[in-house]
Amino acid sequence: MNNRTVIRRIKKIEDIIVLHPKEDLVLVWSFGSEDEPHGKYGYRKFHVHTGFKEACTEEEEHEFLLEAYERIPLKARKNVDHWRSFQKFLEHHRCKCSLHRFNKNSRGDEIQKLLGNYEEVVNKVVNRYFDDKKTAILSTES
Questions:
Q1: How far is Cα 45 from Cα 27, in angstroms, rounded to an integer?
Q2: Is-contact 43 29, C-beta < 8 A?
Q3: Whole-number pLDDT of residue 111
Q4: Which of 37-51, 53-67, 73-87 has the lowest mean pLDDT?
Q5: How far is residue 52 CA from its own chain's centroid?
Q6: pTM of the predicted model as reported, rounded to 2 decimal places
Q7: Cα angle at 83 between 29 and 98, to 5 degrees?
Q8: What are the DSSP calls for the chain, one per residue?
Q9: Nearest one of 12, 47, 5, 2 to 29, comparing CA atoms
Q10: What is the spatial distance between Cα 17 and Cα 10, in angstroms, rounded to a whole number?
């Protein structure tokens, strides 16, 4: 028997024995460590056959959260503040890791404003206590 025949027979045996799934199984969950890839609301995918981990897209997360929101009874939604609207529900479930904590719309604007105020105060102090040569003026005059 030559090498090609042996290789061909081994490949046929492999095709019979080894499972080749038509579709990759994907598990989706919303918990785990911060260093794993995850989306804006913490959802992540795990591909079972390949072991590949990836973040869910924001559209997929909206679908999952909308399904979860619609399963909450209307009476319960009225009693819990962060369930009263879907937007509040989304903000409550937003990921709080260091990557997603400061979004541009809410906390980012506040931080930029505080940094601007900080720069103003520093400039005033520098202008008041330092001369043009950037040496400290050590007098107590105002």
A1: 6
A2: yes
A3: 63
A4: 37-51
A5: 17
A6: 0.54
A7: 50
A8: --HHHHHHHHHHHHHHHS---SS--EEEES-S-TTS---TTS-EEEETTT--EEEPPHHHHHHHHHHHHHHS-HHHHHHSGGGSSHHHHHHHHS--STTTSS-IIIIIHHHHHHHHHHHHHHHHHHHHHB-TTS-B------
A9: 47
A10: 10
pLDDT band at 62 (very low <50, low <70, confident <90, very high): very high
Q: What is the C-alpha to C-alpha distance for residues 67 and 61, in angstroms, rounded to an integer?
A: 10
Pairwise CA distance, residues 25 & 35, whole Å = 23
How far apart (Å, rounded) are the C-alpha atoms in residues 83 and 119? 40
d(CA 93, CA 38): 13
